[in-house]
Amino acid sequence: MEKRKIPFGKQEIDDDMDKVSALKRKFKDISEIKVGDGWEYPFNYEQGMKELDEVLLKYIPFFEEER
What we know:
By secondary structure, the protein is mainly alpha-helical. It has 3 helices and 2 strands. Strands 1-2 form a two-stranded antiparallel ribbon. A hairpin with a 2-residue loop joins strand 1 and strand 2. The chain is elongated and about 60 Å long.
């Protein structure tokens, strides 16, 4: 197995995993709120996905090189 330098520091990875865990909790803990005849969700999914993308997309080039 070839050794490669990981372009991310341990602290950066730990911080990113904390962000991912926090977003996971937000997604899991979403509850529906009855509004009139319909339902609303207090969490903005689009914003949550943007936040998740900000964390995870930076790792793609590193893992693509692994193939």
